[in-house]
Design goal:
By secondary structure, the chain is of the alpha/beta class. The protein has 17 helices and 19 strands. Strands 7, 9, 10, 11, 12, 13, 15, 16, 17, 18 and 19 form an eleven-stranded mixed β-sheet that branches. α5 (about 85-95) links the parallel β4 and β5. The N and C termini lie far apart (about 50 Å).
Length: about 425
């Protein structure tokens, strides 16, 4: 049996999972392959890792990543330290040393993917990154290989388990945002500083990667619109549910004509949409292709072993030579990518949910609908409930298709009405 030597940098949660799979004595890899990836070296700043994994003497252990990169016996390097630096420098040096790279680093790929791919081409090596999006869901392989015969029309889905857990808790158990976040942190689903997750930044990193692979384009990450869930009000979840909608944080990519829409934000979906039933820490991604139609991939979007599974799948691709062939053959990686502008959020068209807090007196609806009409925004439905204790009432509307720029102008004008008594809430809708 042939072996392919692996160097592992970063022994956090995922790195430990990868090591466990590679060190498993009765590994499924041995049953399925004639060429298996073998753990040859580990670099980590924590010396206790060696004892924790009970490493054999023939596995090289170091606290210096460069020592591992300089090891001629290692053919592929797995970068799992995350962040921009020193991860970028480690990958660059690995490529210069003639080693293929496997990574789960979505932030680095989103911000510096083009530069890294160029470096890999320069040295005749490959970069594989299945674990960067969707944990154990093989979404990169599906977009890159399975849907190769399709013109991808849209990609949208739930790509962050932390926010999906929080929204599920709020929806199913009537728990306010702060309490749901605290529960997620207690269970280890959310970081002590949850900003990357709850403000949609993590999802936008993943969206950049999905768009690059799905549409075969180069994009400027800084132009991706992202909005998180920290301002979501429990009342809007109730009212939307009454109207037949479920709230999810979606990453959305569409390519209408010569522009591309890339946006992350809380989104209302009809109750019968497949994504509406994706709950807890699970992820799901819908892909609409010209030949295959609409498909959905579903599974655990994070966690030690699902993500480690994706890393090892990439290692197998490298070991079998598939990664190198793919990397050299596809325009997505070979430099033949189209650079396409990202549409401004103000230019998108969708339906909207609106909630106004208004004075309880006749003529209010007419004033609001009149201003909306002036900006070519028509109302599809309205619900109004009993007055609150302070005398104001919630007025909830669903619009027909409208341009966001027009909506923002209308809301600015409506805000100046004396009948409006609080900040107006709005949510975008995907049917």
């Amino acid at each position: 049996m042939k072996t392919f030597n692996v160097g592992l940098i970063g022994m956090g949660t995922v790195g430990t999972g990868v090591a466990r799979i590679l060190l498993e004595k009765d590994s499924p890899l041995l049953e399925k392959l004639d060429c298996v990836p073998v753990l040859k070296g580990i670099a980590d700043s924590n010396p206790d890792v060696k004892t924790k994994l009970n490493l054999s003497p023939d596995i090289f252990f170091t606290n210096d990543a460069k020592a591992l990169l300089n090891n001629p016996d290692i053919q592929v390097v797995v970068e799992l330290i995350g962040g921009l630096h020193p991860a970028k420098e480690i990958i660059m040096l690995a490529l210069e040393k003639g080693k293929d790279v496997v990574t789960a680093n979505k932030m680095l790929l989103a911000l510096h993917g083009s530069e890294l791919f160029s470096k890999a081409r320069q040295h005749g090596k490959s970069i594989s990154f299945e674990a960067s999006v969707g944990g154990g869901i093989p979404i990169i392989a599906a977009l890159r290989d399975g849907f190769i015969a399709n013109r991808i029309e849209s990609i949208f889905g739930i790509v962050n388990g932390t926010t999906n857990y929080i929204l599920t808790k709020m929806t199913k158990e009537n728990v306010k945002y702060s309490d749901a976040l605290a529960e997620a942190q207690k269970l280890g689903y959310a970081e002590k500083d949850p900003t990357m997750d709850v403000e949609g930044i993590d999802s936008s990193h993943k969206l950049a990667i999905l768009a690059r692979i799905g549409f075969g384009v180069d994009i400027d990450y800084n132009h991706i619109y992202h909005e998180g869930i920290s301002a979501v009000d429990l009342a809007d979840i109730w009212y939307a549910h009454e109207l037949g909608y479920t709230l999810k944080l979606l990453a959305i990519a569409k390519k209408p004509g010569n522009m591309i829409e890339l946006r992350v934000h809380p989104t209302l979906l009809p109750h019968d949409h497949p994504l509406s039933s994706v709950n807890g820490v699970f992820n799901a991604i819908c892909v609409n292709g010209s030949a295959v139609g609409e498909t959905m991939l579903y599974g655990r979007g994070a966690g030690q072993m699902p993500t480690a599974s994706a890393v090892v799948a990439d290692l197998v691709d490298v070991a079998l030579g598939r990664a190198g062939i793919t990397f050299n053959a596809m325009k997505t990686f070979s430099g033949g990518r189209e650079n396409i502008p990202i549409a401004d959020i103000l230019n998108i068209k969708t339906r909207y949910y609106l909630r106004f807090s208004v004075v309880d007196k006749p003529g209010v609806l007419a004033k609001i609908s009149g201003i909306l009409g002036n900006y070519e925004i028509s109302i599809a439905s309205v619900i109004q409930h009993k007055a609150r204790e302070n005398g104001n009432v919630p007025l909830v509307m669903m619009t027909h298709l409208a341009e966001e720029g027009n909506l923002q102008k209308a809301l600015t004008e409506i805000k100046r009405l004396d009948v409006i008594k609080d900040h107006t809430k709005f949510l975008r809708v995907e049917e």
